[in-house]
Amino acid sequence: MARINLDVNGKVQTIDADADMPLLYALRNDLGLNNPHFGCGLAQCGACTVHVDGQPVRSCVTPLSAVGSSKVITLAGLGTPEKPHPIQKAYVEEQVPQCGYCINGWIMTAAAFLNQTKKPTDAQIKEALTGLKCRCGTHMGILRAVKRAAAMMG
Amino acid sequence: MTKMEKATHFSRISRRSLLKAGGALVVSLGAPVALDTVLGIGDAFAQGTKPPLTPDQLSSYIAINADGTVSAFFGKMDMGQGLFVAIGQMVAEELDVPFKAATVIMGDTATSVNQGGASGSTGIQMGGKQMRMAAAEARRVLVDMAAAKLGLPADALAVTDGVVHAKGDETKKASYAELIGGRYFNVELDWNKQIGNLLYAPGKAKPKEAKHYKIVGKPIAREDIAPKVYAQEDFCTDVKLPGMVHGRMIRPAVAGSVPVKVDENSIKDIPGAKVVWEKGFLGVVADKEWGAIKAAEKLKVEWSDAKPPFPDQAALYDHIRSAQVRKREIGGREVGNVDDAFKTAARVVEAEYEWPFQSHACMGPACAMAEVKDG
């Protein structure tokens, strides 16, 4: 056990945890942020995705020791109903999710991608979102939402 | 607005408060029913105390609240299929009330009968079928009650937005709220004695023909989307209770193998870690989730030998092909003739397809929560 500082959604908080514990459990259990989900635990589905210094990262396999003082943003920190990230706004407008369990992976990965890629093609979007899983099969809705968000972001 | 109640919230609110939250003042709080209530208009159809929650009672599916809004008690669960909207549409359609006047309440065995699981796209085709019949019967009963009150034949009446009125003279009217609001239907349905997906209990009413639909078939936005997108909704795995411990199951490498020896000392360094072992069931609990995960990894277990009669992976499709065929009658209607179609086909494509043999698993891990109270 060690005292570890974590910078999450703009707030630095201290927790007692093993340095080898994956970030996911610190977020969910120590900081009470339920949004990143455990899906596979093997970095294969993406349900646990958060941003670490702006990059989409699978928090289920990222030990706290690798996070250090990096800035972590979760879905709850990405945007709010009052101040949504364009991809969140587009997700609601396109009524994308069914169960929504996988939503962190798609939204956080797409948000990081859109922050770096303006006016992406369909092929670029599909390439960027490879490696994410949606068990409900909402993929075409996701594609529409990412295109809608890209249009909002100009 | 269609109010949503999620199963995950139930641990925090009492069932009675849930019923109230559903808009229903129809909850009997144990007070004796006044005689004038029982002898009121439509006393054959309405009463103050709730009939038993059985599949043969109309009140098990539909209630008209004191304000005229409708509560629909659905015995399946919306797992993201949009059933809160779809069932609400079907019920509102049959009852001729606005979509927003119907609230679907589901996910609690204390408020709805067992209409089966959430799997297999059965929500509408099986669960919805019953809700449609129940709502149609509720409308028929309400129109009959209005006919008695207004002194007009039932077929001279129409319903608009929850108000029964004479066709061509909307001043002769009785609202659902006036007719039965706040009291229960006391109407028996023709239940087929099945529960789950096969449950079917129609009344005397015929549901509407599709060509008369005004609400069904219209796209209506779901209210659970935004809370999911903004991380404001809890899933079952997210619910936390004070003093809760986390658990993990420990599975054998081979089916049929059971624990023979378990070394509890192997996890003694993990805070709160304990072994839960009963016959073939083995699990661990710990104060924190990460502790439970580590304990599950670290626990030293000796397993019994087991040689399950599984086919070799390489021979899997041969095994499936030679398995005994179990025919399932699905009913339905036959159209056309297969043999004739082949004979007259412009081109016949012959191919062999193998469906991957894989787990029909969910995205998140199966999860359960137990709260032990009062003993």
Give your account of this protein's structure.
The complex is a heterodimer of chains A (154) and B (375). Chain A is an alpha+beta fold and 154 residues long. Chain A has two domains: 2-78, Roll (Ubiquitin-like (UB roll)), CATH 3.10.20; 86-153, DNA polymerase, domain 1 (Orthogonal Bundle), CATH 1.10.150. Chain A has seven helices and five strands, in the order E-E-H-E-E-H-E-H-H-H-H-H. A five-stranded mixed sheet of chain A has the order 2-1-5-3-4, with helices on both faces. In chain A, helix 4 packs across helix 7 (139-153). Chain A is globular, with a radius of gyration of 15 Å. The model of chain B is unreliable at 1-41 (pLDDT under 50). In chain B, helix 3 (83-95) packs parallel to helix 4. Chain B is built from nine helices and 13 strands. Chain B has helices at 15-21, 35-38, 83-95, 123-150, 176-180, 225-229, 289-298, 316-322, 338-344; strands at 46-47, 62-64, 70-74, 102-106, 157-160, 163-166, 169-175, 184-185, 246-249, 259-263, 274-278, 281-286, 300-303. Chain B is α+β, with helices and mostly antiparallel strands. Chain B has two domains: 7-236, Aldehyde Oxidoreductase, domain 4; 240-303, Aldehyde oxidase/xanthine dehydrogenase, a/b hammerhead (Aldehyde Oxidoreductase, domain 3, Alpha-Beta Complex). The interface between A and B is medium-sized, with 40 and 28 residues.
